[in-house]
Design a protein that fits this description.
The protein is α+β, with helices and mostly antiparallel strands. The protein has 2 helices and 7 strands, in the order ββββαβββα. A hairpin with a 2-residue loop joins strand 2 and strand 3. The chain is globular.
Length: 130
C-alpha cells in the first residue's frame, strides 16, 4: 500500500491538479510522509515543495480517504489517498518535480490517477466539482 496525502484546493468548482515531469497523468498536490511526520506536517511540507504555497497545519481539515490501483505500478499495488481541505488561499506555482499545475473540472476526470478519479466522483456528487 502506497500511503499518500493530498490537498483538495477548489476554486470556481475546479480542483487544483499537478503533473510531474515526464508524466501524462495529473495528481492532486501532496505526497508521502517522511518518518515521524503527521499527515498535517507532511502535507504542509509537500505542498510547499510542489506548488510553493505556505499552509498552516491548523488550517487543514480531513476530508476523506480513497483507495485504488496505484498509477504506473504493478497490478495489485494500491494507493491510499488521505485528503484534506484548507481554508487558506495563496499563489500557486509549479516547483520541484512539478511541470504543470492546472485547474480541472469533472470533465477532466480521466486525466487524473485512479484514486483521484474516486475523489472527483465524490466531489462531483456533493456539488463541489463541476
Amino acid at each position: 500500500m502506497i500511503d499518500k496525502l493530498a490537498l483538495i484546493y477548489i476554486e470556481n468548482k475546479k480542483i487544483l491538479a499537478a503533473r510531474s515531469r515526464g508524466r501524462d497523468t495529473y495528481y492532486i498536490p501532496g505526497g508521502k510522509r517522511e518518518p515521524g511526520e503527521s499527515d498535517e506536517e507532511a502535507l504542509v511540507r509537500e505542498i510547499y515543495e510542489e506548488i510553493s504555497m505556505s499552509l498552516a497545519s491548523s488550517s487543514l481539515t480531513f476530508y476523506g480517504e480513497f483507495h485504488a490501483q496505484a498509477h504506473g505500478q504493478p497490478e495489485g499495488v494500491l494507493v491510499r489517498l488521505r485528503c484534506y481541505t484548507t481554508s487558506e488561499r495563496g499563489e500557486v506555482k509549479a516547483a520541484a518535480e512539478i511541470d504543470e499545475v492546472s485547474w480541472l473540472g469533472y470533465a477532466d476526470r480521466l486525466r487524473v490517477s485512479l484514486a483521484a478519479q474516486l475523489l472527483f466522483d465524490d466531489l462531483h456528487a456533493k456539488g463541489l466539482l463541476a
